[in-house]
TrEMBL record:
Residues 18-188 form the Integrase catalytic domain. GO terms for biological process: DNA integration. The lineage of its organism: Bacteria, Pseudomonadati, Planctomycetota, Planctomycetia, Gemmatales. GO terms for molecular function: nucleic acid binding. InterPro entries: Integrase_cat-core (IPR001584), RNaseH-like_sf (IPR012337), RNaseH_sf (IPR036397), Transpos_IS3 (IPR048020), Transposase_IS3/IS150/IS904 (IPR050900). This is Integrase core domain protein. It holds the Pfam family rve.
Amino acid sequence: MAWAIYPKPKLSLAGRGHKVYPYLLRGVAVERVNQVWSADITYVPLPGGFMYLAATIDWFSRYVVAWRLSNTLDGAFCQEMLEEALGRGRPEVFNTDQGVQFTAGAWTGRLERAGVAVSMDGRGRCLDNVLVERLWRSVKYEDVYLKGYERVPELEGGLRAYFGFYNTERRHQSLDYRTPAEVYGVGAKTA
C-alpha cells in the first residue's frame, strides 16, 4: 500500500449536496449492545506523511466492530468497514460526524437498507461522538506514538494487534473492569 504526504486533513467536511441527518442521541440512555454504533476517521502519522484510520465502535461495550486503514480519504475504505461491521451485527442507530464519507448516499443508503437509523453529530460538536474520540486517544497514546511506526505494513500489523488487545484484553473501568469483547457478547469476533 502506498502512502501520500499531504497537510493535516480536515476530516469532517460534509459533501456538497449530501443530506445531513439529525443527531438522534441527545438524552438517550445507551443500555445494550448494538443499540448505538459510531464511526469516525483520524489520521495516523508516519515519518513521511500519514494514513487515515476509520473505526466502528459499539457504544455500550466499547467494542471495535470493524476498522480500516487507507492512504486516501475516498469513501471506499469506509464502505468496506461498514460492510464488515454489518456482517457482524446491526445497530439500531449509527452515529457519525458530517464528513463526506458519512454523508454520502452510499453510506447512508446502506444503513437505511439495513433498517438502521442514521444519526449525525451537530457541527463542531466532537463530544457527540466522544467514545470514538476516546478510542483515538487510546490507539495513539497506547500504541502509535509509543511504537513510532515507520512503514505502512508495520502500522497495519501493529493496529491489528492493538485492536485485538483492546477488544479482548484491555479492561475498562467504565465496564466494571471487563473487556469490550466480554460485554459485547460471548464469542464476539475480534476486529
